[in-house]
Structures are given as structure tokens and as C-alpha cells.
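REQUEST ID: PR-0412
SUBMITTED BY: lab tech R.K.
PRIORITY: routine
TASK: structure prediction, single protein chain
INPUT:
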Amino acid sequence: MPLKLFDKNTFLLKRYWKMVQKIKEKEKIYSKATNLELINAAKNLSDPNDPATLYEAYAICRIVAKRTIGLYPFDEQLLGAIVLHEGKIAEMKTGEGKTLVATMPLFLNALTKKGVHLVTVNDYLARRDALWMGPIYLFLGMRVSVINQLGKSYEVVWKNKSLFEQAVERNLSVWPEGYEDEVLKDSTKNQEALEAFAVELVEITRKEAYLCDIVYGTNNEFGFDYLRDNLVLDLSEKVQRGHFYAIIDEVDSILIDEARTPLIISGPAKEGAAVYKRFAALAKRFVKDEDFVVDEKTRTVSLTEKGIEKAEKLIGVENLYDPNNVKQLYHLLNALKALHLFKRDVDYVVMNQQVIIVDEFTGRLLPGRRYSGGLHQAIEAKEGVPIREETITYATITFQNYFKMYEKLAGMTGTAKTEEEEFKQLYGMEVVVIPTHKPMIRKDHEDLIFRTQAEKYQAIVKDVLERYKKGQPVLIGTTSIEKSELLSEMLRKAGIPHQVLNAKHHEKEAMIIAQAGQKGAVTIATNMAGRGTDIKLGEGVAELGGLYVIGTERHESRRIDNQLIGRSGRQGDPGESRFYLSLEDDLLRIFGAEQLEKIMNLLKIQPGEPIYHPMLTKLVQTVQKKVEGINFAIRKQLMEMDTVLDAQRKSIYSLRDHILGCDEKELDEYVSQIFEGFIDTRISQFSEGKQLNFEAFENSLRILPKGVLQLDSIKQMDVEEIKQNLIEQLKKAYVRKKEEIGADYVKFMKFLMVRIIDDNWRQYLEEVEHVKEAVNLRAYGHKDPIIEFKRETYQMYDEMMDRINELIVTWMFRVVKVDREKSEKEAKRELANLQLIHEEFDILNRAERRKLQKDGKIKKRFKVKR
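STATUS: complete
OUTPUT:
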């Protein structure tokens, strides 16, 4: 590829070429080394940040790749490997060997023993690449693992360790000397080497997999494991060991295309309608200010001592504040809130047997919005309308924020330059375009534009038929499953045998796509199908013009189009590409059809006749740039919103880890901080200046059991003295509680605190989703949605933390008997039945997606039960 003068890319490549020469100098030294000498040299490497280590590591890797798997990284692949080590994105065209390129920076960074990750787009590619490159890593003394869906984890091991050891001693190589420029010849020695360096997958635990030096897996699995690690009730159950260095394969797909669909771990709201109805009836038997007190300012309800006794009797439990009874307490409090705090035709209306929220600021109805934490169901039970059950979000994160946790992040893809600005702004990653090993000779023809889709598809079938008759392989790229099926039916009627791939069965499709370059092959594929798999030309195909790629329409992103075109013309092979468009295509219909319609009318274009000109292709690209800008703005806004949530998520997860990991002394110190926060909040709530509304303040402390606080002795004190006195009283009561609970106290307190934190965080996540919807509407009132979101969520987060502290204090003093084992068993059973959700990335536009969902042809969500 010709390089531009005076651009950043040229400047970087100049520096990298100098580094390549130094690697090659080191390679000359090691090229005559025995296998054992190479192994020992690899063991002596240590600091990956030292340039000298890079030169040695890459030189050794290059030789080992040749000896173990018969692949020899060429100079351009060394360039890519240097780019990846520096935490940049290497744009390398299809067929340039990205899988092999990654081995060098992975080995170099794995020297830290912190663990490095290679992220792929599907399970099949993770297994394939780990097995394929495995012999290189094992030879170099690294442990390699694969994490797959459904909790499956594997380690790559030698099939026969003794054969490998013999190969080392005898200095056997897969690629014997003298065969460098030929296809490997079958020989006894070569066969021995192939057997000696053969590897296989052995199943291991997830935690063991992450302890390996190099871990291959999908973006989904790394993200879900992180979320699950922050739901555990014991730190020993965590599987990941930090986020040091990762290389993302198909980085544009993961960090851009999938950036708008978060990973979500959710669980069903276990309670049925009968439970909500039962508590709605029970709530009517409780007397305000006698059994419970209402704080209208904070919209909370607290039970009094008398109310607690009544609840325990009515519900049939010994201790309402036992962690096992948390659900019953929440249901009762929600039922009381619904009855006394939420008023019909003020906070909500009932229409068509549905409870619809009223916006407190505008008075408008908010159909579709629901109160979280079971409150909406409690109101539905109160009003006697059908109760709709929901799932509960336990944890969520976007890929944007998950991958930003890595100390160093790199990526590789065939198409990234068009999105360079986004990679720079959102991830701080530069894109470096690596020159191809051999010159690109593919012919990219001008777009053909037709009036209607019907005319366009007829022209495609006619073109395919001509190519099929002469034996030239054809790959047809579509933007949807529906259009794949339509074209397939047309080709069938024309008598053209073909394969249809829809990115559903990765392993099978990778095998089919690999054969798409054979003589006479016709393959229809959605743009994502078989991604990451090379298409090699069959015998005699080069003479026919190579693989011919047809695009059935232009995508919103030029990058997706480039991915399709890039399937042809790999490694200097011949090839062709052409896009067939129509004025009815979504992109042209929305953004450019009127101008093109005028041109067609002016030129008196007949039905079935296309128009084509370089100017028209540029017009389409201008439209694509406009849409890319819109999509970038949306992703940027979502990331800005999620960055707020990300800081809060890290804070909550850090707090969980601190609690689960602390000893008794640290736990006591944390409890003291909670006491101070609890009293501080109460005093600030009921005081103006130095004046404390003692009656209201005293009433607010009725949530604590009798005997915990003696309030008569503090009436004459000033505010600061009251604060210190009450904190000391709480600390003394806490010591008594510790003695009462006994040896199990530390484990019990940790479990109690984490359960309260988790329950409130889940409720907060639901509330945040409602805020996201609401703030976007405020843009119509000339308010910045991001500022509004930050303002509201900061306040909500502070309120949640106050609520967590209050609940910890309340529950701590009310628990009289602990059945921790039963509580933990129930909590673990709950976590075992969670659903992992990631809205499957596809390239359907919104209108098509809605239509197909309505017709039942695609599912709305991709769910995996574990």
C-alpha cells in the first residue's frame, strides 16, 4: 500500500522499521541455537518495558514459531507486533496473519507473570487460535488457557510431553532447514516433529484458567467473569486476577459496534402475584404512628417495636431482621409505602388496567416507566390490577468501561483507520496502518445504482450466474438475515448452488467461509459471518480473476464495507469487488435518494439500467461519513453517562472487596465510620444551624430497638456533644451485640453488609435506567442530558449510601439469632440461577430489527443460563 508523505503513520513506521532491523540482528545470533538454548534464553528474559528485551523476545518468538508450527513471521508482522506492544491498534488487512502477530506481544507482556488476555469475537476463534499458536507458548515456558461459554475452561497442553522433550534434545523442527521457500515436504523427521509439537485442550477450573500466563477468550466471557467476581460472598471465589494487558482481535467490532449493548447479569424476581397481594392485605392492618412511622420528605417507612412484633406474628417468622427474611421485610415496607406515600391521580393514574406513573415536574404520564425494587408491583396489588413480574439487574457494564480497566490495551483489525478519531477520544488508542506483505492488486469497481431493490437483485443474480458459469468464486455480502434468504431463493430459482451463512454457527461457518475461494463456490453471508477466517483461493481461481465480492448495499459505516471487500485480494492474490445499490436502500433513501433520483431522471435512465460514476461513489461515502458522525456522537454520550456509573460501580465493588477481605479490627473501624455517618445524617436532617429539632430527631431514631440508645440524658447537650455521645452509645451497643453473637460474628457481619450493599445496588441500577430515559427527553427543554444525568445520579448515589449505612445499623442491632449457613446457601443458589445477557450484535437497521422481532424471526435478546 503506498504511504502518504509527512503523516503520523509514516513517521511511526520509520521508527518501527529500525526496531525490526534490531530484531533481525538478534535473530541472526539465535538462529543457530539449539531448542534447549532457545528455551533457556526465553527463561532469562524479564523486563518487557526494556527495548532490548523486546528485540530478544521477538527474535526468539520468530524462530520458535518456525520450528514448532511451521509459520515464519515476516517483517510486516513484526511491525504489527511492535505496535501491539505499545498499546496501539494495528490495522492489518485480511490474510496478513494477525493471529501469529499477537503471539509476540503476548509472550513479551506475559513475562510480568500478571497474566495477559487475547480477546476474540467468538468461542470457536478463541479455541482455534489458542490451539494453533499453543506450541509456541508452551515451548517458551508459558501456560495457555481458553475460557468459553457455559463456564467451560481449558488449558493447552502437549499431547505427549515425552515426545516434546525428545524433540528438544534432538533439536527437531517442524520446518527443517532448506525448506523455507517450499511447501513442507513429507519426511519421517518432519512427521516426528509434527507429533512432538502436537497440543490438545484439557478441561480445568475457571480460576486455574486465569492463573495461566496467557488467556484466550471472548469479550463476553471476560466481561461476565468480572461482573460475577463482584457478586461473590467470599474473595476466594473470584476467578480473575486483575487487568494488566489485553489484545483485542477485531477491535472495531468489540469497542465500536458492540459498545452500545452492555453486558447484563440479571435474575428473575422470584415472587409471584400472590405474594404482592398478600402483603397489600397485611399492610392495611398496620396503624400509622403506632406500628410504623412515615417520613414524607425522604419517602421512607420504618417499623416501630410494636410494628415489628405485629409483623413477625402475622408473617410467621421468629425474627423479621434475620437475613433469611429480607424479602418479607422489603415486601411489607413496599406495601406500606404504596398505601401511605403513593397517591392515585397524584403520583400515578390507573388506565386500561395499568398503573402509569405521573411525572412530578411536568404532570405528564410516563407510560412504560415503572418504579423499581418491587414498589410498582406493590402499587398494582393495592389497586387490584394485573401484576407484571420483572427481572432484576444484578450487575451491568459496557465493553467501553470494562476494557478501559486494563493498564495497557491494544487491538488489531483489518479496518480501523476510518474510526481513528473515536479510538483516540474514547480509548486513547492510536491506529497504525501496517503495509501489506505483498502489493494489493484487487480491482474495486464503481458502485452500480438502480432505481428499485427488485432491479438491483435481478442484476446481482445475472452477474453471479455469469461468474458461476466460468467458475469464478463469488462471495455476496448482505446486511440482514432477511435479505440473505431473499437472495438465496432467487439464486435457487436461477439454478445456482450456494451456501448461506448468518453468523449463528461459528465453527461450521468458519469451515464454509474458508472454502468460499474454491472454483465455482457461491456464498451468501451477513457481514459478520465467518469473520476472522481467511479465504484461500482454490487451484486455477487466480487465473479467473480471484474471489469476486458483491456488496448488496452500502452499510452506515464504511468500515463494515471495507471488511467485506477485504475478504478478497489477500496476500497479493487477485480479486474483484462491486457494490450494487438502489434508491430504496435505507442509507440512500434516508440521506441521498432525492439527488440521485434527479440525476436518473436527467439522464433518462430506463428500468433495470444502472448509473455509475466515481462522483456517485464519493456521494455515497459522504453520506456514510455523516451517519458515522451521528453514531459516534451517540456512543460518546452513552460512554459519558456510563462513566459516571462506572466510577460508582468501582466504588461499590471496592467497598465489597474491603468488607470481604478485612479482619475483625478493620471491620470494627469500618462499623465506627458507619455509626458516625448514620448520626451525622440524622443530625443534619433535623437541624438548622445549631438548633436541633429534638422531637423529630428522636422520632427518626425509633428505627433502632429499645435499649440501644438512651436519649433522655442528651436533651440538654449541644449538637456536637449529642453527636459524640450517641456515637459512643452505638459503639457500646455494638460490643454487646458482638458478645451476643459470639465466634460467628465476623462472618455474619460481612455477609449482612454485603447483602445490604448488593440489594441496594441492584435497586439503584434499575433507577438509573429510568433516569437515562428521562434525561434524554430534557434535551427538548434545552437542558444538557449529560449534566442532568450526572446531577441526578450523584444525588441518588449519595442517598443510596446513606440508606445502606442506615440499614446496616438497623439490621445489626435487630438480629438476635444467626443461621449464616442457611443464608449463604440461599444467596449462592440465587447467584447460580442468573441470566447473562448481551444483546447480540448484528448489522440490522432498527426498522428491520423491529419487523423481524415482530415476525418472530429473531430473538430480542441472547440469553445464556448458567
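NOTES: The chain has a mean pLDDT of 84.
REVIEWED BY: pending
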